[in-house]
Amino acid sequence: MKLKTKIFNFAAGILATAGLTPAMSGCHAIYDDSDCVESYNTVRFEYTHNMKFADAFTNEVKSVTLLVFDSSTGKLVKRIDAPKDKLKDGNKLDLVVDPGEYDILVWGGQHSDHYAIAAGETGTSTAADFHCRMNRTEANGVSVSKDDLEPLFHGMVHVSLPYAAPSNPHEVVIPVMKDTNVIRVVLQHVDGEAVDHSKFDFSITDNNGWLNHDNSLRDANTVIDYRPWRTVTGSVDINTDPKPAPGSKADAFDMTGYSRAVLGASLAEFTVNRLFMSNNPTLTVTERSTGKTVLQIPVRDYALLVKGFYHEQMDDQEYLDRQDEYNMTFFLTGDNKWLSTVIIINDWRIVHHNVDIQ
Asked: According to the model, what pLDDT value does residue 147 have?
C-alpha cells in the first residue's frame, strides 16, 4: 500500500470520527492528491414541454445561460454561458461546484438582441436579479414590438448535489419550456376576391413584456403593442369538388378533372411573449383607409377553443405553454366585414354563432 494512500485513509478516519466525510469537505481541500478531484456533476437539458411530448432541445435551443445559486444564502455561485456547440453529447454541461443545496436557473436561446437579462455578480446577485425584459420601442407613449423574436426558453430547479467522482458523475436534469409564440393571421374573402394586406393594420396587445426569474409575470401594467414582422398577399389554390378523376383510384394524388378555385388571402405573422391565463391578449384588424375595426377577438380564448381536440385533461395554462404556434383564418364578406360564424384555428374549423366583436 502506498504511503499516500495510508495518509489519506488516516485523514478520512479522523473526518468520520468528527461526523464529516471527504465528500462533504471536498477531499482536495484536505490533501492534494491525484485521486482527489473536484465534485463531478453534469447538467442535462431537455425540452419536452411541447405538444408532441418529445425532447426537441437539440433542434430548437441554440444556447443556454446557466445560473447557480447557493440555496442557503440565495447568492450567485456560478454563471455559465454556453452555445449549443459547447454542450456535450446528450445536451450535457459540466458543473463544478462544491456539494450542497442549489437553485439553478436557465434562460435559453440566442435572445440577446430581443431580451435584456442582467450580467450579475458572483457572491452578490440573487435569482430575483435575473428577470427577463423584452426589448421594445416607445412611440407616442406606446410600447411596440414588431420583431420576429428569437425563441426564449426558461427552466428552474432546486437540486441537492452530493460529492461525485469522475467514475460515477452525478447527473441533474433541467427541463425547459418555450416562452415565445408565433401567431399567424390569415384573412380570406368568402367570395374569392383578392385580399390586399396593405389595406389592413394588424395588432396584438398584451401585458406580457417582462418576466420574473421564475417565469411569472413581472409587469402586468405596461401594454405591449405587437405588430406583424411579416405581411404578405397571396392566393390559396383549393379543390372545390373532391372527387377522383375518372379512371383513377380514390386514394390517388391525381387532380385531373377536379374543380378548382383560387382564393385570395392576406397573411400577417407575429411573435409574442409568453401567454398567461391571467391576461387578455387581443387581436385587432382595422381597415387602414377608414380606421374601421374589421375584427377584434380575445386571442387566449380563441386559442383554447381547440384545446379539447388535443388533450381535454390538460390545464389551460399548460396548453398555452406547450403550444407555440397558432394559425387563425378569418373570412371576410365583400365589404370587409368579418363573417364571425366560422374561423379556422390550427386546421380545425370552428363554427361559432355567439361571439362578441366590434
From this structure: 95
Residues forming beta bridges with residue 178, ordered by sequence position: 153
The DSSP bridge partners found for residue 69 are: 76, 103
pLDDT of 244 above 90: no
Burial 338-347 (b: 16+ CB within 10 A, else e): bebeebbbbe
For 301, the enclosing helix (H) or strand (E) is helix 299-304
Q: Tell me which residue of 40, 29, 104 sits closest to 69, measured CA to CA.
A: 104
Q: Estimate to the nearest angstrom the gap between the alpha carbon of 351 and the chain centroid.
A: 30
Cβ-Cβ contacts under 8 Å for 313 (sequence gap 6 or more): none
* Exposed/middle/buried for residue 324 (C-beta within 10 Å: 0-12, 13-18, 19+): buried
Instruction: Transcribe 209-245 into DSSP letters.
Output: SEE-TTSSBS-SSSPEEE--SEEEEEEEEEESS--PP
- The H or E element spanning position 322 is helix 316-322
What b/e sequence results for 193-230 when a residue is b if at least 16 CB atoms lie within 10 Å of its CB, and e otherwise? Answer: eebebebbbbbbbbbbbbbebebebbeeeeebbbebee
| pTM of model > 0.85 | no
